Here is the input.
Amino acid sequence: MGQPVREYLLTLCVTAAVTYLLTGPVRKFAIAAGAMPEIRARDVHREPTPRLGGIAMFGGLCAGLLVASHLTNLKSVFETNEPRALLSGAALIWILGVLDDKWGVDALVKLGGQMIAAGVMVLQGLTILWIPIPGVGTVSLTPMQGTLLTVALVVITINAVNFVDGLDGLASGMVCIAAAAFFMYAYRMWFGYGIEAAAPATLFSVVLMGMCLGFLPHNMHPARIFMGDSGSMLIGLVMAAGAVSVTGQVDPDLLNLKAGGLREATHAMVPVYIPLLLPLTVIAVPVADLLLAIVRRTWQGQSPFAADRGHLHHRLLEIGHSHSRAVLIMYFWSALIAFGAVAYSANNASMWIVLGIVLLSAVGLVLLLLPRFTPRAPRWAERMVPPRYRRLARAVVDPAGAAAEAAAAEAEGEREPIPAGINGATAIGDRSRFVDRHRAGSHR
Here is the structure.
């Protein structure tokens, strides 16, 4: 098993390196091309920031698949049509995202493009063929049922990821966490039970991790570039493709034989017994945000696709959390749900896993209820941490300096900041291009 791990690690590093190195030139290209929309009332950032980060991420995807196709243990994946299907669908959704980042695309056109990209993958064999249901067994799907279910799963996943793309580093970090958890699950299916049909999903999750890790250094707060719809829809489609692959190609009856019996297979297939819930589990937070947004907007008489400032990350900012702290809290909940589901699927009879999840959930609730609390590093370690985590001893020793800082802060406060909001348009939402009236009076 050491050789496959090294090959996966090589694929991950190549994908991350290519994405990282391409992001800088892509940023310059986005600025030159004018892909820097005006600051909107619902944006968090205060300076125009280039988009089109998805161009670099798509380059990393192509590089990762190209390297994997020449590796000993991974090239067998390319004997199937699934990598080709992924690349075809990714290219279509990426082109659609680039057009939207530069000129803006109508909501219905965007939704239709997502469905076409999912349909192209279905036509090339990346589809759900059966669903194992507890107490019923394996239920085979007709071609029409499999197509509809696959398209629905892809569209939901794309928009869930895009909806959560509201703070610097939030979407790329959460998807990276979800991809890491999904890799552990798919790798266990392939090398733990010897099911080769799980190999494409394992490769897709590794490439997805590399794309996110390579882009994340450029996207952390304060972000120098945004992934835009070209990136958020792309990583959402890659994640959905991995989920469809492992649920649509892994034969439950084969797993029964590999696991040693029906009872053992039942324990091993806890996530697979609810196959459509598995990808929603690893991105449970974005999906919850998506569902809440639809209910909230419909209840208020608005279009479900209309952008607003009611997302989960907006709520965290409103109750007093800083930008970085809100992102870390979202990371925490994503990791807790994703890795908790994977751990439970590995050993669903262990109460320690359940107790650990409950304990970590309590810790997460405490963090949510303490938005004003900022941890302080000990004095001997202050030079090794960012300034915001150091003790404010200078203000006490130097009252004059503190007064000057207070006066500067008060003068700065005369400029009303632009209200918080998401920094990227929703995947099928409207993109209004107007300058907020507060910005008109600013002297930036």
